[in-house]
Amino acid sequence: MKTVLSNQTVDNPENMDITLKGHSVMVKGQRATWQRDFNHINVEFGFLGKKQKRLWVDKCWGNRKELATVHTICSHAQNIIKGVTLGFRYKMRSVRAHFPINIVIQGSLIEIRNFWGEKYICRVWMRSGVACSVSQTQKDEVILEGNDIELVSNSAALSQ
Questions:
Q1: Which backbone phi and psi does 107 adopt, to 5 degrees?
Q2: What pTM was computed for the model?
Q3: 65, containing H or E segment
Q4: Could you give the percent of the chain with pLDDT greater than 70?
């Protein structure tokens, strides 16, 4: 069964500039400018109000799976807004029982040595836009920071 109309809105903070060009959403914030393209999804975008403080997403005559994309796009927009204002930080700790694990950071490369007592050096390249550093307060902790949650979480997953 198809639903006639499904819509959802995303609030625009005061210090944020959101522009729409077709199905492309561009967000300009304090930390960065980020653009996301939604051409592959058949939805309508627009702004509500005279000051364009709310971004709305509409889907007409969609089934259940197509209507779920409305909430997905709004979640992506909220993550972009949060990323360009605050950023995302992942903290990872190396836990060991017997073999001491050594972590060396060289720019955007993380080298993990002596994992399970192996001689093999595991080299992990961070995604573009992700900065990695060693925590000064906690032992054996690596901090990953960036503006895009997908790149930061993917970098964390690669280094596990």
A1: 70, -115
A2: 0.84
A3: helix 64-85
A4: 100
